[in-house]
Amino acid sequence: MINELAQPKVDVKDGQINFKNVNQFKSDFEQIIQRNSNFIVTDETLTGSKRARAELRNAAKESAAWRSKIKAELLKPFEDVAEIAISFEKQAKSAADAIDSDVKVFDEAEKQKRLDGLKTYVDARAKELGIETITEFNDKHLIKGNFNGTKPKQKFIDEFIEPELSRLVSEKELKIANAAAVKNYAESKGFEPEGYIHSLDFKTLAQIMGDIDGDVERKRKREEAEKAIAEMEARKEQEKIENAKSTGNKKVDEETGEIIQNTQPVPEKTYNRTLYIIEATSAQLNQLADYMKSNDIAFRGEK
Fold first, then answer.
1. What integer best gives the mean pLDDT of the chain?
2. Nearest to 5 by CA among 53, 70, 62
3. Residues 6+ positions from 259 with CB-CB distance below 8 Å
């Protein structure tokens, strides 16, 4: 039964917590479990089974109640102190956060000074080398250990800055060499090189050479097509000439090739008239004669 479960006794001495009767507690609990386990429920054992179930549940309930009680009693002094500690912890954290905000502002200002000093050095070196300056820097390079005040240390320069400047010099030299290669190749193929050289900003030398070769092929095909069209038109023109020779003065329909019959022109009717000139100067008579001659008018004169 439930009163058979011995509860451990709490003993607190000199800040040490000890529990007595723990072994008795374990023994009693084990006996209750063993005594009431493996029941086969039948009509005859139903009442006993319910009693066993109740005993097991009561034992577990009593143990849990005792455990919660002891835990609350033991933690009560600590919880009181914990509330005090938590209150001061919050105050300390708030004060630290306020200082941290000011420290970050100061640190950022100091880092900016170091960055300005680094830029001054890099800009001067880039001008000496004839290259574009470095515009982006890694924050990890701006730590205080890499500087004497705002001036970059020589070790930092040798390990990080000069290698990057050397890389930029090599890139510039390569770009100049590539531009010369593109210029020579484009001009050898009959193209203006400027557009191809501009492509070096976003294409490799091999890609640009491939573009030039592609343009050469497209130009060849275009010229062949233009030549074929010109030859075809020349043949058509020659055929017209030959057709004109074979048909004499007869006209040929260009679409059907049929000869168009020419109609004979009807001659204009002519008249024979006698013209008497009553009075005219010699100059006027000459002008009249010239007019009739120019218009194919046959005439004769008598004094």
1. 84
2. 62
3. 247, 250, 251, 252, 253
